[in-house]
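From the pipeline queue, job 12 of 40. The input is one protein chain; the requested action is below.

Action: predict structure.
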Amino acid sequence: MEEERIPEEIRVGEKVKALREQKGLSLKALADLTGFSTALLSQMENHLVSPSLGTIIKLAKALGVRVGDFLGETEGEPFAIVRKDERKTISRFASKEGVKYGYSYESLGFEKKNRHMEPFIVTLEPATVKTSKTSVHDGEEFIFVLEGAMEVILGNHTDVLYPGDSIYYDSNVPHRVQCHQDRVTKILAVLYTAST
C-alpha cells in the first residue's frame, strides 16, 4: 500500500525576508510601501504569523514580484498538474503560541510558470483570534464552497454560502471570508492578479 505524502509547507515569511533584502529594503521601507506595521512584517519573516492571501498580493506588488515568487513557482511548464499529495500548504497560525487565525490554504497552481491566477483549496476553521478586519487588494476573486458553510463580508453586504454556492468579486471591495457558526469549511478560491 502506497504511503500518502504530507503536503510540503511553504514558509512564506522566509521568502518575504529574502526578497526584501535582495531589493535592499529595510522593514520600515517595506512597511511604508505596504501599509503594514514593521512589527507585523517582522512576525511574518520570523514565521510567527503566516500572511493571508490578500497580504501576499500586497507584498508581491510592493516588492515588484509575482505572487508565485512566494509560493515556489518553478521555471517549468506552461501547464500545471498538482496531485493531491503534492499541494503546498500555507498555514495561517502563530506557530510558537499555537494561535489559529481561522484558515490554512494549499496552493494548486505553483508548477505553472508566468501565471496570473492563484488557485487554492482553503480550509476555514474557528479562529482563536477573532478579527473584524477586511482585506483590500488589486485583482478579482472567485470562491466555490466545497464543504461546510462560509460567511462572506463584502463591503456592507454579509451572506452565507453553502456547498455548491459560489461568489465572484473585485478584490478592491473590502472583504473577509470565515467559517459560519464555527463549522470547518473547505472552499476552492481562485485569485486573479494582474502582472506586476
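Job complete. Confidence is low (pLDDT under 50) at residues 1-7.
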